[in-house]
């Protein structure tokens, strides 16, 4: 039967099929190696992180290889993923705040330059804030 399939495929298709099988075998070996000790509570989490998949896909993959997963392992994976998501959210928030602060500083610096330039050219000061800036920068 295998020879019949090979005859039906063009050389290019046969090569693609061979590579697909190779990838499948490699993936299976990696999963078996990863899941040597199925009692570890981080088993599901490791599969999720290694293959960058969500919980459902990781469970489906492990189910394909007849690897049993306990509720404790599922709970552990969920808690770890929640922690990672919270950390990512916190990092994103810090980056956003930092970016906002830098843009505000740039705007303020440009405003100071405009005030100083206007003072140098015309000698005009409109507000007390501008006076404070001129006093700080020039005098």
**How far apart, in Å, are the first and last alpha carbons?**
92 Å
Q: Low-confidence parts, pLDDT < 50 over ≥5 residues?
A: none
Regarding quaternary structure, what we see is single chain
- Summarize the helix and strand pattern as letters: HHHHHH
Structural class: mainly alpha
CA-based gyration radius: 31 Å
Count of individual helical segments:
6
Work out the helicity level.
over 70%
The major sheet is characterized as: none
The shape is elongated
Q: How many strand segments?
A: 0
Mean pLDDT over all positions: 87
Strand content: under 5%
Describe this structure in words.
This protein is an all-alpha fold and 139 residues long. The protein has a domain at 35-97. 81% of the residues lie in helices and 0% in strands. The chain has six helices and no strands. The protein has helices spanning 2-8, 11-34, 43-51, 55-64, 71-122, 128-137. Helix 3 crosses helix 4, helix 3 (43-51) crosses helix 5 and helix 5 (71-122) packs across helix 6. The longest helix is centred in the last third of the chain and has 52 residues, at 71-122.
